[in-house]
Design a protein that fits this description.
By secondary structure, the protein is an alpha/beta fold. Helix content is 34%, strand content 20%. Strands 1, 2, 3, 4, 5, 6, 7, 8 and 9 form a 9-stranded mixed sheet that branches.
Length: 265
């Protein structure tokens, strides 16, 4: 069986050095000669896009695209959809670092499991702590619990959050999940195109939950803990009123589309 054709996309918004580190880690740990790595700058106001376009990564597998305006996370990823001719496409955050050839292994696993259309590896903080990113289908109650669990560690909110993040399951083996993080996910390219990629109506927040639900209409979504990567996970406190409003709008759209009920996992 021939090696899978792989593509990947990193959407950047400022922080040139971090983006370059992510790009170089993908190139260094992905030997596939036909890899296509797209770096899409979302009109960064700090000049990140221009610097990326001028950067010599020393590898013809990289293509930098500078958008004229900030179209949001999902539409940034969608902007390269027509250029994809791979078997498996990876959605990567600019704060992800590879330490081994994760992309080839995940792509091969996906293609060996016809019923699975999307997957995520196990992500870790730079200090080695595990990130609890595999999740069940969001509900209003679970999202509320997610916000309050850390403040009330012995409360029903904390118990619900552990259920939401599947800490009550054995996550040391591959298993189905219902919310695949946009920080690092792999999808069959034909499925990514079939479902139209990300819903462009989301500017940011829960667009990855929405994409997962679309993928689940075509097959299963899996956590693959045998594959690992580092994820800095820059989670800023929600103190910006504009971002908080945007999050509420995105959540409203999500629940109108997919309902408030529980999932099947």
């Amino acid at each position: 069986m021939s090696a899978p054709r792989i593509s990947a996309c990193i959407v950047a918004y400022c922080d040139y050095e971090e983006v370059c580190a992510a790009v170089r880690s993908v190139l260094a740990h992905t030997p596939a000669p036909d890899l296509r790595l797209f770096v899409v700058d979302n009109a960064s106001p700090d000049g990140c896009g221009q610097r990326l376009a001028a950067e010599d990564f020393g590898d013809s597998r990289v293509a930098v695209r500078c958008l004229p305006e900030n179209v949001g996370f999902g539409r940034g990823h969608n902007s390269v959809m027509e250029e994809l001719d791979s078997d498996v496409h990876f959605i990567l955050n600019p704060d992800v670092l590879l330490q081994e050839d994760v992309l080839t292994g995940m792509a091969a696993w996906l293609l060996d499991h016809p019923g699975v259309v999307m997957a995520t590896p196990q992500l870790y903080f730079p200090d080695g702590r595990i990130q609890h990113l595999p999740r069940r289908k969001p509900t209003p109650w679970l999202l509320l619990a997610r916000q309050l669990a850390d403040r009330m560690p012995d409360s029903p909110f904390a118990k619900a959050d552990k259920h939401y993040t599947m800490q009550d399951e054995d996550l040391s083996v591959p298993r189905p999940i219902e919310f695949c993080t946009g920080s690092f996910s792999a999808m069959r390219t034909d499925v990514f195109k079939k479902i139209g990629g990300f819903d462009p109506e989301y500017f940011m927040y829960v667009e990855d939950a929405d994409l997962t639900q679309k993928a689940l209409q075509c097959g299963q979504v899996y956590l693959l803990p045998q594959f690992k990567a580092i994820h800095a996970w820059h989670r800023a406190p929600m103190r910006d009123a504009g971002k908080f409003k945007m999050q509420l709008v995105s959540m409203g759209r999500y629940f109108r589309k997919w309902g408030c009920g529980r999932g099947k996992v």
